[in-house]
Amino acid sequence: MINRRDFLKQAGSLTLGAAALPLLAQAGSLAKPKSAGIQLYTVRKELEADVKGTLKKLATIGYKELESARSAKGNYYGFAPKEFKKVIQDLGMNLRSGHVHLDKDWQKTVADAAETGQTYLICSSLPTEGQTISNYQKVAEQFNKAGEECKKAGLQFGYHNHEYEFEKAEGKVLYDLLLAETDPKLVAWELDLGWVVATGHDPIDYFTRYPRRFPLWHLKDMKKNEPVSTEFGKGGLDIAKLFQNADKSGLKYYFVEQEEYSGDPIESVKHNFNYLQKLKA
What we know:
Keywords: Isomerase, Signal. The chain has helices at 4-7, 21-26, 44-49, 51-61, 81-90, 106-116, 133-152, 174-181, 193-198, 203-209, 239-244, 246-249, 265-280, and strands spanning 37-39, 65-69, 94-100, 120-123, 156-160, 168-169, 172-173, 187-192, 216-219, 221-222, 229-230, 253-256.
C-alpha cells in the first residue's frame, strides 16, 4: 500500500490551488454550491459526548444535509433509526446518506436505513483485503448485489474511496476497475476529493471519463505536504473549480469532512461553512 507521506509527493501539477477563488467569484463563473452538508465523522468525539447538543450546533452554523457514520454506539449514535430521523427533522436537517460496513449485519443495515428515510447507503471501506485485480472483481460483484438489495428497499447503494483504491495492479488503476465492473444503475460513487488529489489524480478527469457517476462528494481539503486534512483554503483543494464541474459529476449532495484539527472541531466546521458561503457571493 502507498505510504501516505510518499504518495502526496505524486500530486505535483495536479494539486489544485485555491489562489484563484476571488477571481472566479468576481467573474461570475462560479457554479453555486448546493446546500452545505457534513459527514458526522467530522465531529465524532463531540457526538460521543452529546449527540443532540452537537447536532444543534451544526444546525445553528447552517448545515442542513447530513451523512452519518458508524460509531461505537451503532449507525445512529445509540438511537433507533426512526428516533434519529425525528431528532434530525426537529432541527430542520435531513439525513441523506450513511456510512456503513458491508458485513454479516448487512440485511439489518439496509432495513434500518430504509426506516430513516435516507436516500444513499454508502460502504465506507473495501469489504475484503487484497490489492489484486481478482479481489477487486469480486468486490465489484458484491457491490452490484448490494446495489440490487438496496434498490429493493428504496435506497441507492454506493462506495466511498480512500487512497489505496488508486494503486495499480497489472498496470491498471484498481479504482477504475471497480467503476468499469459495476452497474451504474446499482452502484453510485462518493468521491473523497481530498484523497483523489492526494494520490496524484484529478477529480475532474474522473467526472469527464465517467460522467454523472459521482452524485456524492466528500469535500475535504488536505495539507500540501502531508496527508492530513485541514480547514478549507489552507490546503491544496481548488473548491471553486470543482463546483464549476459539478454537473459533469452529477452532484446531488456534498458533505464537508475534516478528520484532523489544530483547535476546536466546531470552530473548524464553522470556518468551512463560512468559506463555502463566500463562494456563493
